[in-house]
Amino acid sequence: xxxxxxxxxxxxxxxxxxxxxxxxxxxxxxxxxxxxxxxxxxxxxxxxxxxxxxxxxxxxxxxxxxxxxxxxxxxxxxxxxxxxxxxxxxxxxxxxxxxxxxxxxxxxxxxxxxxxxxxxxxxxxxxxxxxxxxxxxxxxxxxxxxxxxxxxxxxxxxxxxxxxxxxxxxxxxxxx
Length: 176
Known about the structure:
The protein is mainly alpha-helical. It is 47% helix and 5% strand. It is elongated.
């Protein structure tokens, strides 16, 4: 649409920038001039100046996020359970800890401990003996004709998940 300005996203004001806004506004600069000088929106400068004149402080308010439901001890128990039994599920961990937290919270607490949920290996690495047996099998069937191949049933290993759970075992591991 013509005439509509693109919305720009800015990081939070640093303590230095907040001090500059106070100094410039105290010196009598207009909000527009301060915003242009600092490459910030006029709204941000105006809101900050109003906070300064209303509260008399330039300290940024703490976030209004949810309070932490688990203690440090609970967090250590979460991590210990994931390390002792890597295939443990988030719902099992939640039941063992006994705190009403959502599975995403468990994942984020384990991520703080540098643990990620990963799928296990699809297949174990082949040993030299396994490789030798596979090679012998391939050499044995390399001379098959069309009638021999018509007796073989091929299966597709594709997985289709209609629900939310794919029933694959996941393990908690450190990256790398």
